[in-house]
Amino acid sequence: MRIAMAAPEMAPLAKVGGLGDVLGALPAALEKLGHEVSVVLPFYRQVAQNETVPIRPTVHVVTVPIGTRKVWARVHRATLPDSGVEVYLIDCPEYYDRPEIYGTGGRDYKDNAERFVFLCRAAVELWRLLELSPDVIHVHDWPTGLIPVYVAEMYRPRYGCFDRTVTVLTIHNLAYQGQFWHWDMVLTGLDWQLFHWQKLEFQGHLNFLKAAIVYADGITTVSRTYAREILTPEYGHGLDAVLRSRADRLWGIINGVDYRIWNPATDPHIPCRYGPETVREGKRACKAALQQELGLEVRADRPLIAQIGRLDPQKGWDLVQSVAEQLLERGVQYVALGTGQTQYEQWLRALACEHPGQVAALIRFDEPMAHRIEAGADMFLMPSRFEPCGLNQLYSLKYGTVPIVRAVGGLADTVTDTTDETLANGTATGFVFREYEPEALLAAVDRALRCYRDAACWWQIVRNGMIQDWSWERTAREYERVYEELRRVRADQATVVSTET
């Protein structure tokens, strides 16, 4: 198949979170299955400044109307490393030559509606200009959410292109929807008749993600449990009714891990490489090196608990804050890495000051350090309020760092709780709790600490996790099946229309 993707992030060119990691791996995994894959991405300042991927100019220019004016962009080209995946870069400095991708100082850019309307329209116009005729157009999250609308409402009827193309939306996090002032509808060039509750309007606003949910031929999200959760008011963020109306075209597919990057047997960022057979010696060395680097007391018998991620209520930092002193009274060491809300940054800094040698707070984005933490820690906390997929628990499994997670979204799908039964059948990989309560989190940590003191129990769980396969090849094959199903449905519909005609 010829697969054209559009996204606001793509590692290693431009990344804020897990979405960037997905786009850095999924296209290459699909290409390995024999498909022709390309990606459209904005030419951000970070892309221009990257030193790992060469950027090549092209002769192409795209011009699209934005409201009452026309805006144009040059198109550059790159190739995703270790693949033949072509990346088309939309170079419009007024929109993308900025310090960050979505905003600065914790605030979104005020013109994000305009910036991503332009990305959506420019992507479709570029595919038309290149005469690409993709079998599948696959868009990711709200910044590319208007693409299925443009394909269905403008480019098929006006230009007669994309007649056999199916559109697929992947929801990486339903909480972020791209909801804007209703007058931003003028920027889109779409008919105002589409601005109503069954199409683009949501609570009086223009909603990019709702538009994609309504118009895409198929919808995927990043775990089976999350696909069920978002159909409920608790996790649907107001769009549960819209999603229920499309439930027959909704699939949950767990993200994969790029084991070329996240693998303790080959990781260049860690002081001692190891695999399932050498994990005891390897983790002992990595733990001691991490303790020394972070100024923690260098003791093998102290359980080291880690937490990495965005400092946001979604990730359960308030739960950890409420039990932190009790955790430390149990004799554990604690390291946290991440940036985000000021209240959590200040709390972590204060906690580290109050408990020198026992707590390390790293308020920054530091990819190599994340690798060293995964290799050196004994346990990894992910007590999320909700978690569409989660990647750190998958990294932790591979690195023999036992995850302690709440049973939501992808965490529920990827971590098997340790019980007498799962220990006996060899499937236990971590510790799981259900209620979003401090007591439930503490109880899960206490179970993990009891097992930690039983070497036979602990190393069995560690090895169970390390031999799990969460590779991108498995994930890519699931996407391939979804694409094929949607193409079959579209072909059947085309046959019916032809017969009726």
Description:
This protein is of the alpha/beta class. The protein folds into two domains: 2-256 and 473-500, Rossmann fold (3-Layer(aba) Sandwich); 279-469, Glycogen Phosphorylase B (Rossmann fold), CATH 3.40.50. 41% of the residues lie in helices and 19% in strands. The protein contains 19 helices and 20 strands. It has helices spanning 18-32, 45-49, 93-96, 112-129, 147-159, 185-188, 208-215, 224-229, 240-245, 279-294, 317-329, 342-354, 367-376, 392-398, 409-414, 420-425, 438-452, 455-466, 472-500; strands at residues 2-6, 36-42, 56-66, 69-79, 86-91, 103-104, 107-108, 136-140, 166-171, 179-180, 201-202, 205-207, 218-221, 250-252, 304-308, 333-337, 359-362, 379-382, 402-406, 431-433. The strands form four sheets. The protein has a nine-stranded mixed beta sheet with strand order 3-4-5-2-1-8-9-13-14, sandwiched between helices. A six-stranded parallel beta sheet has the order 17-16-15-18-19-20, sandwiched between helices. Strands 10-12-11 form a three-stranded antiparallel beta sheet. Helix 10 (279-294) crosses helix 13. The model has no long low-confidence stretch (mean pLDDT 96).
